[in-house]
Structures
1.
Amino acid sequence: MARRRKRLRLSRKFPFISLGAVTKQDFVALANAFCRHGASDALVNDVTNYFASQNPRFDRGRFVAATRKC
């Protein structure tokens, strides 16, 4: 039986992110982009809070650490 992906709702706060089904690979790619481009702590914190509000299994610490080591 195929596993269903959880659909995340689009937020007014982040209209640039079209969230259908976000996979682990999407989170990794976003963290790498934040790292490569030196995203501010405020931006990383806002996006992290949004993802955590949409997915109770989202690991904040792991995502933030990934945005700082590239």
2.
Amino acid sequence: MDYPMAVFVASALISSRLDYANSVLVGCPQKHIARLQQAQHALVRVVTQQSTRFFPLTAINLLEQFHWLPIEWRIRLKLASFAYKAIHTGSPPYLADLLHHHKSSRLMHTLIF
């Protein structure tokens, strides 16, 4: 398997396994998210064939090279995507019915200079 194929397979693995139902992890203790983060770090090291002892780049630097978000940010992105889609398209209806636009009770004044 060549390097681009390894990156492609790893990306598919990340999106299918680590992202599966991760939106339920919103608000859970950090220790549970940290376990998924360790798995993601291990995967990026396998793809790049780098060991932790002999390579100066950290796993976070390697994630940046592949444009992979850390697990916590992937969860936030998925939740934001669900909310945006529900508000703007009304789909899925079970989420759209729960979300409402917030209207501030404070009057906002504009400053004219």
3.
Amino acid sequence: MEHPPIEILVVDDEASIRWVIEKTLAEGGYGLHFAESAEAAQRLVDGQHIDFALVDINLPGDDGFTFLQAQQQRHPDLLMAVITGESTMNNAVTAMKLGAFDYLTKPFDIDEIEALVQRAAQAIRAGRRQQPVAAEPGLGEGEPITGRSHATREVYKAIGRVAGTDVGVLIQGESGTGKELIARSIHQHSGRAREPFVAVNCAAIPRELLESELFGYEKGAFTGAVERKAGRLETAGKGTIFLDEIGDMPLELQAKLLRVLQEREFQRVGGLSTLTLRARVLAASNRELLQSVESGAFRADLYYRLSQFTIAAAPLRERREDIPPLVEHFLRLGATKLGLPARGITPEALERLVSHDWPGNVRELENVIKSLMIMTRTPVIDVADLPRNIAGGEDGKTLDEKFEQSVLHHWGALIRDYSEEGKSGLLHRLEAHLERPLIRQVLHLTHGNQVKAAAILGINRNTLRSKMQALGIRKPTGGRNARTRGKTGHDGEA
């Protein structure tokens, strides 16, 4: 299928610059247009379709920055790059703030112009293949947890089971896995949804302040207590209080919290009046609390009080099926909540995101997408826009690691679904399904040479022939051996 040429506009008042760029790009199959001023460039852009503009800053009349700024309103899809002889930080920052794709200084090499235009053309073609994600109102408000993996479906079901009760819930998982989102979802689906949701990060509040933060204090209870202050347990009212990173709570405060949970009563620091705990208490930890119990760092009785029902928040590397919908979710949030231009993402870039291990989990993914939406100057995010450690994809991994990751990525959900149905013989079935496409692919790569194919597979040629016959695999007919068959009088193999 023929693709329309990339239409490029060069805006520069120096004839020599226009001539050099024209000669450089003449054989690239681009549509080339030229203007000596911002006013002439504006007439061209308004009168016909232009994909990419190379704009000098210093122009007669309106300068290049004025032209860039005008296009933000008139032609927001126009990709633009700045060329200038004045390489200053202010110029560079201004250009990028005005939406420039890149910034090139004079004098420049021909190779630099070619590379810049090729990158722009690649981004433009990617944008033609895939439109930006359209913003959907309200996304992320009612249902904050996004995903389709088995692990996420289990979380959905757990929330449904426990939301309508008042039992203690402990949510465990690595940092960034969305433990607070799970707690909020429990609250939103409970009978307390109209009441406050109060979150307390026990690891973020200094040990000496955590007690007064939870229970509140009376005037004069300690130096600096100039007036009475209600604690988080009190302000939560009949709603939900979420104690995040509960494993970091000091042991002496654990004892006080246990008593509150048992008696449903507490007092402000320095106070005598007894207050009633009306809120539901949810807790979370990024460490395995049972191990903390065994080591003596966490009270066993408090652990069992909090963990009447447990929910596991799986790390993102174990639920890669969730990454595509999460990416789409964060792209939409970036457009609606942050007021950023809508962005799409190419399949190649999405594949790199799926392959990344995400040590920071969902929080890291969200931050990367937010950064990409700010930094990317094209409607569609491509591999070249990704951070280097993610864009590298599989580089640096051993073959065994690549095979293992491929199995986890492509077969993980199928394996879990198979086990859920209570079936047996999974290994034999997977081997049977793997063998046929594997042999076909190896034969394709060796152009039908069975000797080479058998060597790659680690079996002898007779075994390979038997498997091909049993699996109904025919030798490739369009490879090198097909071309030599008439000369050798056999299948072209040694």
